[in-house]
């Protein structure tokens, strides 16, 4: 009888659904880490770990079956965020990527003379520490960086 119960317990564990990540908010943060990220999805209640790429989250808290709050670790580039649970680890999904890289949202104006000389404002995220901006491979002069805006004053 005991062997039958062990087999039934193993079947139940194997039949548990894997966690699924459907949204990250925000989906970006600085390379130093420390961003509070809300992870939404399904089957998240039993989470045992959250990873940003191959690095464990600095911390995480399971809020519900459909939501986790995690703090991003230090990192670089664009990484997949996965959630591990007793049933296994979530698969990579398009909705589950976190960017440590700069993200450009707008460039104003988006045109100018070939000779240059146009003042340009670039808005986006993760610009802290920017040291250069290039247009067609040529470094633009007069960079004034901010975390969400770059101003170029020729």
Description:
- 9% of the residues lie in helices and 43% in strands.
- The model is unreliable at 1-13 (pLDDT under 50).
- Strands 3, 4, 7, 8 and 9 form a five-stranded antiparallel sheet that branches. The chain has a four-stranded antiparallel sheet with strand order 1-2-6-5, with no helix packed on it. Strands 10-11-15-14 form a four-stranded antiparallel sheet, with no helix packed on it.
- With 154 residues, it is mainly beta.
- The chain has one helix and 15 strands.
- The protein folds into two domains: 17-99, Immunoglobulin-like (Sandwich), CATH 2.60.40; 103-152, no CATH class.
- The protein has one helix spanning 2-15; strands at 20-25, 36-42, 49-52, 55-56, 59-64, 67-71, 78-85, 88-89, 97-99, 103-108, 120-125, 134-135, 138-139, 143-145, 149-152.
Labels describing this entry:
single chain; 154 residues; mainly beta; Immunoglobulin-like; 2 domains; four-stranded antiparallel sheet
Summary of the model, kept short:
The chain is mainly beta.
